Amino acid sequence: MQYLVGTDSVHTTAAICDYLAARATATDAVSVGAVAPSDEPTVRRDCQEALNVATVRLATVGDIDTVLREGDPASELLEAAAEIEADELVVGVGGDACSSERGSTVSAVLDGATRPVVVVPLSEL
């Protein structure tokens, strides 16, 4: 199975890793992507930390790849999913995943996806 994870924070990555812990095996591959503008060093640092968490938390997965991209987050995730032929996209969302307030990135991914998308709820801090 080829998973594509979209993340923007350590908190999101941790929640998604909890989801994948019961699913991803040593024969699976997980690609983890974060999208940040090149002119926002704080956002880029946060995204890189989120990617670092994935490599540690998913150590038992057969193949893990991380990438920091630039551009529109939803477009970049959908493009990456097509590039790697992901079987499943996994994203995180705070609040009610069915609400119209679920976030513009998650909404755009759900609207544009041509493959299954799993929306992992993020617990409140």
From TrEMBL:
InterPro entries: Rossmann-like_a/b/a_fold (IPR014729), UspA (IPR006016). Residues 35-121 form the UspA domain. SUPFAM superfamilies: Adenine nucleotide alpha hydrolases-like. It comes from the Archaea. This is Universal stress protein. It comes from Salinadaptatus halalkaliphilus. The lineage of its organism: Archaea, Methanobacteriati, Methanobacteriota, Stenosarchaea group, Halobacteria.
